[in-house]
Design goal:
This protein is an alpha/beta fold. The chain has 2 domains: 206 residues, Rossmann fold (3-Layer(aba) Sandwich); 165 residues, Rossmann fold (3-Layer(aba) Sandwich), CATH 3.40.50.2300. It contains 12 helices and 16 strands. Strands 8-7-9-10-11-15-16 form a 7-stranded mixed sheet, sandwiched between helices. About 4% of the residues have low confidence.
Amino acid sequence: MKIHRRGALKTLAAPLFLPAFARAQAPGAPVKLAMIESLSGAFANTGEAVFRNLLWAVERVNQRGGVKLPGGARPLALERYDNKGQAEESIAALRSAIDDGAQYVLQGNSSAVAAALVDAVGKHNERDPSRRVLYLNYSAVDPALTNERCSFWHFRFDAHADMRLAALMQVLREDRALKSCYLIGQDYSFGQSVLKEARRQLAQQRPDVQIVGDELHPLGRVKDFLPYAAKIKASGAHAVITGNWGNDLTLLVKAAREVGFDGKFYTFYGNALGAPAAIGEAGVGRVVAVADWLPNVPTAESERFYAAFRQRFPRPQDDYVHMRMQLMIEALAQSIEQAGTAAVLPVAQALERASVSLAGQSGAMRAADHQFQQTLVVGVMDRQGAPGVKFDVEGSGYGFRVVRVLALSQAELPTTCKMVRPAV
């Protein structure tokens, strides 16, 4: 599996210069998927973790013969493109992927990158409709991407930030001991939107809770979070609300432990990528995380699903599986088969109606804004072996006990998207 690395581009709005090759491919030729992610730098671990998820999903489709089309079955082929966590590098990777014949672009880590890709893919498809590409987003959760910035060529398979925060609030609002919160996030569109929505939802659902801190920090550039943790402790906050992810979350919770902060963490991503091990025993009963699925969802189907992933990737540090990424690849395969072609436009039209299930989990794409609708769960960190915690995370000895399940209808939020669909 090759990793593509390209230099930065001139501007995001620059045209995508492509060779003049026909889009038609021979029967049996692979359907090319391009994963554009950080594979080097501060967030390289997040890119590698995503790759394992997508690889496993692609392998599952290929093991059953690939996608079935009238001219014969075609396998899925997944290629990796390193964007170094940068928007301009991502557009460079997009150009390279299209040059290489990819029709489906997969990205999620960073809403800033996602916004750049939404714009670039839209411009490219308008300029060159014979070489269209579709952008599938599994983790970039800025609500704007399926609201005012929605695009026909973009489909999001993760719950957006407002949906995730609403799920966390289902648990937070019942915490009657909670009297004060500290809000902290990464200083870009996603982190800003989380803090803004946290203020709004706290005022609506827990007006008695005082916000004693509200700050943003540079994305991926802080190596020492001790000054931030010291401010959090000094504020007297009973809890922290954060959308931080990757090393920005791991280093934050580690610093909080070092300064002796004993409040709760209400997180979007506190259930993986080193966070449970970093906070350790101090997180038991205190770290809360929201997800589309957790390994300790108490069903036999879910347990078999998780066991199969651990068999495929047995190293403890590779323990990072997300149901939504599996459902995304299943939805794409289903849509290609229903369209009877891998051509982007008919596949996109089929994907608008996609409804998929796997291991007892299910979801459906909402055509109005291309926001996937699915069950959400909230879990609380506890020791492995405690009731409801059969599985730990990354060999840490700590896992997440499911304390709240939100059905699809409970997790859904309205949209302001005014979708513009292509004429042809």
